[in-house]
Amino acid sequence: MRLRAASFCAALLCAVTALPAAAGGLIRLTDRDDLFGWEAVGRLELGAAGYCTGSLIAPALVLTAAHCVYDKSHAPIAAEAMTFRAGLRDGEFISQSGVAQVVAHPGYAPGATLTGEMVRHDVALLKLADPIPSAVAGPFALAGAGRAGARVSVVSYGRGRDAALSWQRDCGIIAMNRGVMQFDCDVTFGSSGAPVFMRAAGGNARIVSLISSGGQDAAYGMELPGIVADLKQAMRAAKRITTAAPRRVQVGQGGGGIGAKFQKP
């Protein structure tokens, strides 16, 4: 059902106590075979700031939440402090790369009150220092607009389960309001930036949203097509690119993050 309450808080953020429990359990993607098809989801290491979840939408582009790319003082984290590890599981990864450029949507204000407007723009795009070939980790396409009642799945890292990806293969979009989606998916610290997938015709998983925040039995994300188009344009228009040394390595050992990032409404 599409909510029509006058305020975003009344319509969406403050409704968490009335929600059902998440519809599907978590599956740990432990083995290489379990990871097949999800290799482009990885852990974004943020130096001393901890980690988030990110996903490839092109060989050199990673999509994550905007709040992930700021530190506790709300200052931007340097690109060279970041590393994306695709398919990280139990210390091994499919591939990794440093980050050359970071663009967070200007509509997101770090440190501001977490409103619908902040969730709607909580998206960042990262350009990798060295692209990860599609044959190694196939990037995901974006889905069109989501719809209330649609079934989705989430692939993420999280506090207490950050050594490997967890897949919740069945949860749902339970409400939509002004470009913001509400899910009954199981998320926690570290799930920030995690892709929310819908199945397209032919069974291919496409990213319909990212996890921005959550609490109790609710999670929140945003519609993506327009936001991502804005970020790509901003990245092309940027005059300066902070270059990090290429760090891509095939199927190697990964380090541990310091802390998982998350927002709670």
Automatic annotation (TrEMBL):
Family assignment from sequence similarity: Belongs to the peptidase S1B family.
Peptidase S1 domain mapped to chain residues: 22-265
Name this polypeptide is given: Serine protease
PANTHER family to which the protein is assigned, alphabetical: SERINE PROTEASE
Organism this protein belongs to: Pelagivirga sediminicola
Signal peptide bounds: 1-23
InterPro entries attached to this UniProt entry: Glutamyl_endopeptidase (IPR050966), Peptidase_S1_PA (IPR009003), Peptidase_S1_PA_chymotrypsin (IPR043504), Peptidase_S1B (IPR008256), Trypsin_dom (IPR001254), TRYPSIN_HIS (IPR018114)
EC id: 3.4.21.-
Pfam families: Trypsin (PF00089)
Molecular functions (GO terms): serine-type endopeptidase activity
Keyword field: Hydrolase, Protease, Serine protease, Signal
Example of a GO biological process term: proteolysis
